[in-house]
Design brief:
Strand content: 15-25%
Shape: elongated
CATH architecture of the largest domain: 3-Layer(aba) Sandwich
CATH topology of the largest domain: Dna Topoisomerase Vi A Subunit, Chain: A, domain 2
Strand order of the largest sheet: 1-2-3-4-5
Number of helices: 10
Distance between the termini: 54 Å
Structural class: alpha+beta
CATH class of the largest domain: Alpha Beta
Helix content: 25-40%
Length: 324
């Protein structure tokens, strides 16, 4: 069969992760500037290979014994290979079908389960109840509609426990944890009862949505109908849970040192990252919704979503300078 690396034109560089990088041949076909920064990549094992452009996002590959994908044929044409040669290689690949064992052990179905959890006793927020006014006003200040989520409050409790909004965690319509957000300006502001691997607001993601926006904080998620990981890392169980959504994942981290570092983990997981050009006083998604509104914030997130390492790094440096 053919050596894909000999077909790719121009300068090439081997990386420590096994990729060979070069100037991508796909970008200008999608109205991007021609690549001059070695943002195309191929991982090749002598028979099979994967192609990925870290600029425009074009991906394809080749597996010996399998028919060529249409995107693979297109890539070869962009490399200057004519149609007849491509068909020859396709036939040669299919001739290996009976010589290669493509069978794989049956994958065990992963079961995701969280233990049921008992919530503290409380009352659903009622904007018309004078005793609930301070809680309703707090949510309104965060641009959160108190009727959009089953928030609980505890105005009849004593001491600090009377000054909190309780946000239940659900999974498959069962209560699996909660957060208490205290309103008394004391620390800690939040006390969480979160099971490992849980992602907040996962139940509220609609089947017909093509995108899931991942944030760090609960109010960030609630203000744009996204989900929250509730800390500055994405653990493997959370990544597994997110994968069950079968949606494009876009991470919007907090605009601080730990949040910006989370971008690298998101790229490793194959997510897109969005770092919109918000004003310097906007530190997270909820701040953006408060300042700009929900729809403009959502549009800015979607428009800025990318998996280009270079674009993300440039924006990280720009944000980092304003935070120093």
């Amino acid at each position: 069969m053919f050596d894909i690396l000999s077909i790719i034109p121009g300068k090439k560089r081997k990386t420590s992760t096994g990729w060979t990088t070069f100037n991508a041949v796909c970008c200008h076909h999608f109205n991007h500037r021609p690549d001059q920064r070695l943002r195309g990549g191929i991982k090749f094992d002598g028979h099979n290979w994967a192609y990925a452009c870290f600029n425009c996002g074009y991906k394809t590959g080749f597996t010996l014994g399998q028919p060529m994908l249409a995107k693979t044929k297109t890539l070869l044409k962009w490399c200057g290979i004519d149609e007849i040669q491509i068909q020859r290689w396709n036939l040669q690949s299919l001739q290996h079908k009976d010589l290669i064992d493509f069978s794989q052990p049956a994958k065990q179905k992963v079961k995701i389960k969280f233990d049921e959890h008992k919530l503290p006793e409380g009352e659903i927020v009622d904007r018309n109840n004078p005793l609930h006014k301070v809680y309703a006003e707090y949510l309104q200040l965060r641009k959160i509609d108190s009727s959009d989520y089953p928030f609980l409050i505890t105005p009849n409790e004593k001491g600090r426990m009377s000054n909190r909004v309780i946000i239940p965690y659900t999974y498959k319509n069962k209560i699996v944890g909660h957060t208490s957000r205290f309103l008394d300006n004391k620390t800690p502001k939040y006390i969480n009862e979160q099971q490992h691997g849980y992602v907040f607001n996962i139940d509220m993601q609609k089947a017909d949505w093509s995108v899931c926006i991942v944030t760090e904080g609960i109010f960030d998620a609630l203000s744009i109908d996204g989900v929250a990981i509730m800390h500055n890392d994405i653990n493997s169980d959370q990544a597994l849970l997110l994968s069950t959504l079968n949606k494009q994942i876009i991470l919007v981290p907090d605009r601080d040192k730990t949040g910006l570092a989370l971008c690298d983990k998101a790229l490793e997981l194959g997510y897109r990252v969005s770092l919109p050009d918000w004003d310097d006083d906007v530190k997270d998604v909820n701040d953006a919704v408060i300042k700009y509104g929900k729809l403009p914030t959502l549009l800015s997130i979607l428009q800025c979503a990318t998996n280009s390492k270079i674009k993300i790094e440039m924006q990280r440096k720009k944000i980092g300078k304003t935070r120093n």
